[in-house]
Amino acid sequence: MAEFKEISPNASMGAKLTNWFENRFPTAFSEYEKHMSGYYAPKNFNAWYFYGSLSLLVLVIQIVTGIFLVMHYKPDANLAFASVEYIMRDVPWGWLVRYMHSTGASAFFIVVYLHMFRGLMYGSYRKPRELVWLFGCAIFLVLMAEAFMGYLLPWGQMSYWGAQVIVNLFSAIPFIGPDLALLIRGDYVVSDATLNRFFSFHVIAVPLVLLGLVVAHLLALHDVGSNNPDGIEIKGPNAPMDANGKPLDGIPFHPYYTVHDIVGVSVFLMLFSAVIFFAPEFGGYFLEYNNFIPADPLKTPPHIAPVWYFTPFYSMLRAITSEMMYALVLCVVAAAAFGFMKSRMTMGGKVATAVVAAIAIALMLAIDAKFWGVVVMGGSVLILFFLPWLDKSPVKSIRYRPDWHKWVYGAFVVIFLVLGYLGVQPVTPLFTRMAQVGTLLYFGFFLLMPWWSRLGEFKPVPDRITYAAH
């Protein structure tokens, strides 16, 4: 048993209370020091570093508002839509809680997308932070599952038919597809069984996984230390330290960055409140107008599209047509030919590459394009997991990369936004062709990264981080 710390009898009541808790729960205080007051972060964080804490804030908002919504929601196909209307019209402040939750879903993806893009710009996925990035990508994947299952719960027209379309995609998987789709739905069509399954996962199972991944993400981050806009390590054998072993280029996370984050939180809450009170539907992007109509299995909406944060990936799914498969076959042939010319493989390795390419082409031509659309949609997310090993740049931060790299990243953002826009539009020959080109460019950004990330003249990286007070 640890010895109790003594405190002066003349100390303030707050100090005495703190001492009382510290003597009885020292683990909490040591963890607080390890992860807050004793955790040194680089002193040159900029506004891009708000989005990590904002993601945590939105997660708390979603959990708290979700608890209050569950108090009145009925996971029954005959009552679900009416229960949401009851929350909106009759529950005191129910409309506010519901709008906070629906706006929070979109806000969650906005801040997560910006958080991930910051990591992309500054190389936060590079050694030694590969595991931090992998946990972050897993959070993104689980977040997509959570949002998809929650989207069905209002039991509106777009909720119902969106779930019908997405779940039916699993039936395109050879051999196990129909049984897998049946298992997910719990019925041959989206029905009360589906609603109950999605409700259980949305409220209990997936949030537990999400919280566990968030804790792992933060613990892994604090074990290796935070990255910074310069991509320079502030801890380690070559980093400058003071007499007490504290990094000279770092400052304690608390109170400096807790106060710093209050600025970002304040701006975010103002924008968040403005949307809730003045534009909760946000032009039909946050809450689609078709979802204010009760689900009708006998009446299909003229145009079915997922919520905006899924549309880039949905656009890639729709881009894979029978015609597009021939373009993908050409890509496989080109990749195999490039490997033959540039690699130093043995003859056995070259033969194996040719065999693998031939098998891939045969499968691509033999299996329906719908299945490959599902593969491309899943691959567009899973490829993010491999980013730490795809980037071969000698420097981490975009600050010290060739200027044309910034244009590459800018083009990637534009392509992603265009794919998102195309995903909410009806299918036309022009939009399909644009989505196909965008899909090839999206995957080209990652698959060609080992080549283009090494090209150009890199700027010298300073020994210490650059910092200007603001």
Number of strands: 2
Enumerate how many helices there are, as a single number. Answer: 18
- Which structural class do the helices and strands define? mainly alpha
Low-confidence stretches: none
Description of the molecule:
The chain is mainly α. It is built from 18 helices and 2 strands. It has a two-stranded antiparallel ribbon with strand order 1-2. The longest helix has 33 residues. The radius of gyration is 26 Å and the shape is globular.
Quick take:
The protein is an all-alpha fold.
What attributes does this structure have?
single chain; 470 residues; mainly alpha; 64% helix; globular
SSE blueprint:
Layout: H1 13-24, H2 26-37, E1 40-42, H3 51-70, H4 80-89, H5 94-122, H6 130-152, H7 157-169, H8 177-185, H9 192-224, E2 250-252, H10 253-278, H11 311-319, H12 322-342, H13 347-366, H14 369-382, H15 387-390, H16 403-423, H17 429-447, H18 449-452
Antiparallel strand pairs: 1-2
